[in-house]
Amino acid sequence: MITIDEKLAPILAEVLRRNAGEDEFHQAVKEVLGSLGRVVAKNPDYLDYALIERLCEPERQIIFRVPWVDDQGRVRINRGFRVQFNSALGPYKGGLRFHPSVNVGIIKFLGFEQTFKNALTGMPIGGGKGGSDFNPRGCSDGEIMRFCQSFMTELHRHIGEYTDVPAGDIGVGGREIGFMFGQYKRLTNRYEAGVLTGKGLVYGGSRARTEATGYGATYFVQRMLETKRQSFDGRRVVVSGSGNVAIYAMEKIAEFGGKVVACSDSNGYVVDDDGVDLALVKEIKEVRRGRISDYVRAKSSAHYIEGGSIWDVPCDVAMPSATQNELTGKDAQTLVRNKIVAVGEGANMPCTPEAIRVFQEAGVLFAPGKAANAGGVATSALEMQQNASRDSWTFEQTEERLATIMRDIHDSCAETADDYGAPGDYVLGANIASFVRVAKAMDALGVI
């Protein structure tokens, strides 16, 4: 149960009233407000000018129709979203998610989280998020192209390198970004490379952007383990998901000497006690666009469990990297019984509040997503830098910058938690460090 300071309780009550039924957004706001009691006790000025209320209200919410034609010639209709949450630190920045679960509440929760995540990077970027309830699974390349072009036909009115810079998320990878950038260029008659990030290398993308979220989360957890004189070396690790974040978290974990023994997709999970064959996972998911169950056909050492919970697999480190609220309080109890050492959120808010409470009460090192998975957006900001200077960095240059940023985020969270009397509480440290940066900028800009 998250405790809300009595001075902040009326703010939360109003957020709940104004955003009825948006459970994920409520959850994200409660988590941040639950950390701010110590801040307003030390700095009551933050309660002035409705600053916190303004921070909980998006600057702009855009909902639009996306008509497109499938391969059978039928007209299909989806709904598109862009929530431009906060631009106090810079242009709105955040991904686009194409998934049937997408609705305005999901996008608002993601945009709210993105505002604080982006603040932690130290880069000059605000927070936003967008997407559609379109499901790319099973669609041909032609159908995905037509959908992306229709989506961008409306979205292009609201974005720009100094206004709002989208990127990818679940269901949106390099293929989709390419189709959308092409349509943006066609509609505007401008080669504005900085309007989208996650682009292909041949037309303005950044090296290491594909790897950045997974690599960054692993750097953060490694740094967190080092505070206890530990590391990934020799550890059993479970990574949920098998998309972009999970794949590159697994790659970096292996470089650090860890052994990933399980990964998953929405249908089930595979366990391979010999260590997950990452090349095979990449072949299945990135080339064939298949299901993780295909893994066991090629690896006799592995077994597949349909449904169930990947968190039943004993491990030392868990990295939930699939989707929100995938790891429950019950799952957390199972992991604690199996002597989990550390948990790093690769996805956005993948652990429920109950799960976080279980981990913290058990003394498990816990890295919240707004800090641990900030590597993706940090590298997107580096891509914007390269576009602005008409430059292209090497993979090594970019990864070195990413590693430095993730170490700095870790240290900022740890030091802030210490300063506010909660050593080791990375949730509180991340929430307060990011809130203070955004709040100072909002205060300087006046009541807008």
List strands and helices in order, with pairings:
Elements: H1 9-18, H2 23-33, H3 37-42, H4 51-55, E1 60-69, E2 75-86, E3 92-98, H5 104-121, E4 127-132, H6 141-155, E5 164-167, H7 174-188, H8 209-226, E6 236-239, H9 244-255, E7 259-265, E8 268-272, H10 278-287, H11 295-298, E9 302-306, E10 317-319, H12 329-337, E11 342-344, H13 353-361, E12 365-367, H14 369-372, H15 375-388, H16 395-419, H17 426-445
Parallel strand pairs: 3-4, 3-5, 6-7, 6-10, 10-11, 11-12
Antiparallel strand pairs: 1-2, 2-4, 7-8, 8-9
Helix pairs in contact: 2-5, 5-17, 6-7, 8-9, 8-15, 8-16, 12-13, 15-16, 16-17
Molecular structure report:
With 448 residues, the chain is of the alpha/beta class. The protein has three domains: 9-55, Orthogonal Bundle (Glutamate Dehydrogenase, Chain A, domain 3); 60-193, Rossmann fold (3-Layer(aba) Sandwich), CATH 3.40.50.10860; 212-372, Rossmann fold (3-Layer(aba) Sandwich). The chain is built from 17 helices and twelve strands. The strands form two sheets. The chain has a seven-stranded mixed β-sheet with strand order 9-8-7-6-10-11-12, with helices on both faces.
